[in-house]
């Protein structure tokens, strides 16, 4: 790729035209996206204009934004040269995180070293690779590989559980753990569901559905069913963890803000040899009865000073669902007296 930088006459001094050449026209079509939607997303986010002239893309905007747009375009084109696709999420990730940096991978071995090469993080699963889309997500994923016990705390839609399950699947298929155990408190979210029909599995599955959804994103459905049947993957309510020692397992506790202090202590003390444990939660969505202290709150207070435990925090800026989700979270945060004061 060849880049030329021109300053248009008559424009403000900080305005630039940056022309970037892309040799393969077929890859350039994929880079632009259907109806140029990828270019439109870059223009909208960075406040630049992108013109297509043959096999050139010309970026017009202030110098900083134009340079960032060029870096995003080059990173996406490089991805296509490697035989990978460019989806909306890939564009969003490059806009949030910028061009590849020179990451450090010292101290990691084998597949993990490859995963962190070049400053990029890519989690390999059976169905698709998964890449963090914000700096906070990247730091979180690195902590999941580096620490035996890690917390991911933040609002809905920031990828806390999704990335934790992806890392669990990656470590399972690489042979680092023998089992994946996914759990969450069976607490109703503000509505009484009554007695659900069926056996025990039928009764608890509605609470566990988000965990099934994540697993099915990373493993073929038949393989998920087989592994569950063999108990190499377990999905169970938090109450079922009592009395167990979880060795050689990747263990995720989701919705941990709805665990009581005693439940949280019980769960954390299940950690066995060769295991990794991840606790995710959103402090703004506690569904416990009034007056009951959240175990997630107590864990932060009591364990924050232990260096071997990682606490990773997310904000509305890390939301990777629909853009409106971030705005909704910000609106509720602005109306929260505790956060205003």
Structural notes for this entry:
The chain has 13 helices and twelve strands. The protein has helices at residues 25-32, 37-46, 63-81, 88-97, 110-115, 135-146, 160-173, 200-218, 221-229, 261-268, 295-303, 323-334, 337-340; strands at 3-6, 15-21, 49-53, 56-62, 123-124, 129-130, 149-153, 179-184, 233-237, 249-253, 276-281, 309-313. 41% of the residues lie in helices and 17% in strands. α1 packs across α3 (63-81), α3 (63-81) packs across α4 (88-97) and α6 (135-146) packs across α7 (160-173). The protein is globular. β5 (123-124) and β6 form a beta hairpin. The chain starts with a strand and ends with a helix. With 341 residues, it is of the alpha/beta class. Strands 9-8-10-11-7-12 form a six-stranded parallel beta sheet, sandwiched between helices. It has a four-stranded antiparallel beta sheet with strand order 1-2-4-3.
What brief labels describe this structure?
alpha/beta, 41% helix, 4-stranded antiparallel beta sheet, 341 residues, globular, 12 strands, single chain
The whole-angstrom Rg is: 23 Å
Q: Walk across the major sheet and give the strand order.
A: 9-8-10-11-7-12
The SSE order reads EEHHEEHHHEEHEHEHHEEHEHEHH
Count of beta strands: 12
Give the overall form: globular
Q: Which assembly state applies to the chains in this document? A: single chain
Q: Segments where pLDDT lies below 50 for 5+ residues?
A: 99-118, 189-193
Distance between the termini: 52 Å
Strand content of the residues, in percent?
A: 15-25%
Q: What average pLDDT do the residues reach? A: 82
Helix content: 40-55%
The largest β sheet comes out as: 6 strands, parallel
User: Which secondary-structure class do the elements indicate?
Assistant: alpha/beta
Number of helices: 13
